[in-house]
Automatic annotation (TrEMBL):
It is found in: Cytoplasm. This is Glucose-6-phosphate isomerase. Pathway: Carbohydrate degradation; glycolysis; D-glyceraldehyde 3-phosphate and glycerone phosphate from D-glucose: step 2/4; Carbohydrate biosynthesis; gluconeogenesis. GO terms for molecular function: carbohydrate derivative binding; glucose-6-phosphate isomerase activity; monosaccharide binding. Signal peptide: none annotated. It comes from Actinotalea ferrariae CF5-4. Keywords: Cytoplasm, Gluconeogenesis, Glycolysis, Isomerase. It comes from the Bacteria. One of its GO terms (cellular component) is cytosol. GO terms for biological process: gluconeogenesis; glucose 6-phosphate metabolic process; glycolytic process. The gene is pgi.
Length: 560
């Protein structure tokens, strides 16, 4: 029996927040001047993450009301239900247990859900993946000619791509020398052609990563990669082209990661070379499952275990910390504050760490596929605006591109600034510590956004009066600063878990199922229906609406 969502707008906390917002005139300059303890009072820690919330447009009363809202919508019960393995993914009738993937070996009490010993299953699959990773890393696992593997190509899309590629980039210093990962995701044939075209087939291993093993893009790319492997191995004289030699090539050069091991076998990959997981792991929550196999090969089992431990530390914090100290809860509630009480449409995530350059793209799937919903988990319409657009680029590139709009545009854009104290490459430019200079930008931006620059300050610089308005910075642009000692595997796991839980908290307040993604279905179905028209079927073309028909006609006329 599903607990119906509580309409947040019907709570007394919502009414109080409404009244509070009407009377609130954000004044970060004034608030900081009047309250020397503001920064320390509004800073929280979770695991290795130091999170300064003080430059948000909140007072103590705001936070107290947001925490009350969390209580009134039943956030604690929902968190407990998730960790217990209840089927809180209502529309797919599934449990949501990505947190089980990072429970340490031997965790007590054991997690058994609906008769499944989840801990035992998770550890068994991880050990299988680690054993395979060690064989590849040591050179024991070879291609058909006996050469060790030097390049691993992950073929997947969405959660079966964005997580592994983001983490691989984030943990570059931990990648074993002589091993490289590449990623193929798009069904645009350019992707697979350019990603594998220059590789040596004898030293290449493909991982076909697909939760369902039914995704058109991934299966098409996997077949193209398999054809490439067969052709190039045969051209090199490594196989003779017979059926047996082709099967032997697939056995040595293809492994799979999926919840559908029967479909893996049907593709021709030996189930012995496949790693499994379960329907209670959502695609966008799966990088910590065997979907991370490419990462496990690259960084090794020990670093991968540290990565999982980072997630787990944040999971335990979400599960146990009171909401006024609970970082994911507070950050999720702040996002609700901005979306629903300041009409914020977007949220920037700005990593000041080059290795996190794919983190915003990763977060786009996590947050927007999770919370881009118009109905609640009982099918009734939502009662508020929901998911905001997440976006970002690494600092300082963004500063020279889109920060103008964040500083002086008409829209409020809450932003998270993420940095680490120690860079991967501590270079000096003469006397200057370049990373320190980089971080000076990180500190300067949130300061400028919060406190701005008044007309008096602009005039005091001798600015001509007619230019003064253009040079004024309003300030009161909200930011959260997240700092960590270094970008270790654990810290990367912590950051991912933090945003997973922020997303969940927002979904609970809005009463939506953050774990389904029905909105991607229609486009997939229509693509299959339209495909014959695009390949020249006149009848299928005639059935299309006038705009689609004309667009396809343009394509047919212009293709060579
Ligand atoms: O299209 C949406 C989606 O289902 C995502 O949720 C998922 O991460 C992606 O497709 C890939 O799915 P799969 O891992 O099953 O290939």
């Amino acid at each position: 029996m599903t607990t119906p969502p509580i309409d947040p707008t019907s709570t007394s906390a919502w009414a109080a927040l409404d009244a509070h917002r009407s009377g609130l005139d954000p004044d970060l300059r004034g608030w900081f001047a009047a309250d020397p303890e503001r920064a320390s009072r509004l800073t929280r820690t979770v695991a290795d993450l130091h999170v300064d919330l003080s430059k948000n447009l909140v007072t103590d009363e705001t936070l107290a009301l947001l925490v009350r809202l969390a209580d009134e919508v039943g956030l604690r019960d929902r968190i407990d239900a998730m960790f217990r393995g209840e089927r809180i993914n209502v529309t797919e009738n599934r449990a949501v247990l990505h947190t089980a993937l990072r429970r340490p070996p031997g965790a007590e009490p054991r997690l058994v859900v609906e008769g499944q010993d989840v801990d035992a299953d998770v550890q068994a699959e991880l050990e299988k993946m680690f054993a395979f990773a060690e064989r590849v890393r040591s050179g024991e696992w070879t291609g058909v000619t006996g050469e060790r593997i030097r390049t691993v190509v992950n073929i997947g899309i969405g959660g079966s791509d964005l997580g592994p590629v983001m983490v691989y980039e984030a943990l570059q210093p931990y990648v074993q020398d002589g091993l490289t990962l590449r990623f193929v995701s798009n069904i645009d044939p350019t992707d697979v052609a350019e990603t594998v075209g220059d590789l040596d087939p004898t030293t290449t291993l493909f991982i076909v990563a697909s939760k369902t093993f039914g995704t058109l893009e991934t299966l098409t790319n996997a077949r193209l990669a398999r054809d490439w492997l067969w052709e190039t191995l045969q051209a090199a004289g490594a196989i003779d082209g017979s059926e047996e030699s082709r099967q032997a090539a697939v056995a040595q050069h293809f492994v799979a990661v999926s919840t559908a091991l029967d479909k893996v076998a049907a593709f021709g990959i030996d189930p012995a070379n496949a790693f499994g997981f379960w329907d209670w792991v959502g695609g966008r929550y799966s990088v910590d499952s065997v979907i991370g196999a490419s990462v496990a090969i690259a960084i090794g089992p020990d670093a991968f275990r540290d990565f999982l431990a980072g997630f787990h530390a944040v999971d335990e914090h979400l599960r146990t910390a009171p909401f006024d100290q609970n970082v994911p809860a507070l950050m999720g509630l702040l996002n609700v504050w901005y979306v629903n009480f300041f009409d914020a449409h977007t949220h920037a995530v700005l990593p000041y760490a080059q290795h996190l350059h794919r983190f915003p793209a990763y977060l786009q799937q996590l947050t927007m596929e999770s919370n881009g919903k118009s109905v609640r988990w009982d099918g009734t319409p939502v009662t508020t605006q929901t998911g905001e657009v997440f976006w970002g680029e690494p600092g300082t590139n963004g500063q020279h591109a889109f920060y103008q709009l964040i500083h002086q545009g008409t829209r409020l854009i809450p932003a998270d600034f993420i940095a680490v104290a120690n860079p991967a490459h501590p270079l000096r430019d003469g006397e200057t510590d370049v990373h320190a200079l980089f971080l000076a930008n990180y500190f300067a931006q949130t300061k400028a956004l919060a406190f701005g620059k008044t007309a008096e300050e602009v005039r005091a610089e001798g600015t001509a009066e007619e230019i003064v308005p253009a040079r004024v910075f309003e300030g009161n642009r909200p930011t959260t600063s997240i700092l960590a000692p270094a970008l270790t595997p654990s810290v990367v796991g912590q950051l991912i878990a933090l945003y997973e839980h922020i997303t969940f908290v927002q979904g609970v307040v809005w009463g939506i199922d953050s774990f389904d993604q029905w909105g991607v279905e229609l486009g997939k179905v229509l693509a299959t229906q339209i495909a014959p028209a695009v390949t020249g079927d006149e009848d299928a073309l005639a059935e299309q609406d006038p705009s689609t028909r004309a667009l396809i006609a343009y394509y047919l006329q212009h293709r060579r």
